[in-house]
Amino acid sequence: MRGRLLNMPAVGRAVGFALVAIAIVAAALHFRTSESHVQGLNVRPAAASDPLTAELQRCQALATQAKDDAACEAAWAETRRRFFTYQPASSAAASLTASPKSPDR
């Protein structure tokens, strides 16, 4: 007596391996195409209206010399103040336009 024509456990394993391989290829293709799309998203046009953002970008361009720059330290202090201070929605717009030049510390 010969075995069955289709060995169901072996077929199931083969289909499972094929599905896993397809999922890996699909994920690799997705992440490969997403990287080029994400690089174009780094530019923010609204950043030009906020002088603090422009100052932080200047400090980022200075790299390690920024730690000795007083203007960069003031910008970082203002960023920390904005991040850690609760502002209701009504006063948030007003404080975005007026930013103090000197740090609290």
Describe the model:
- The protein is mainly alpha-helical.
- It has two domains: 8-41; 44-97, no CATH class.
- 65% of the residues lie in helices and 0% in strands.
Provide the descriptors you would attach to this structure in a database record.
105 residues; mainly alpha; 2 domains; 4 helices; 65% helix
Mean pLDDT: 77
Number of structurally distinct domains: 2
Number of helices, counting only DSSP H or I runs of 4 residues or more: 4
Low-confidence parts: none
End-to-end C-alpha gap: 90 Å
Portion of residues in beta strands equals under 5%
| Fraction of residues in helix | 55-70%
Q: Say how many strands there are.
A: 0
Based on CA inertia axes, which overall geometry fits? elongated
Q: What class do helices, strands and sheet pairing give?
A: mainly alpha
Tell me the Rg in angstroms. 28 Å
The main sheet comes to: none
Order of helices and strands: HHHH
In short:
The protein is mainly alpha-helical and 105 residues long.
How do the strands and helices of this protein lay out in sequence?
Blueprint lengths: L7 H32 L11 H12 L7 H15 L4 H9 L8
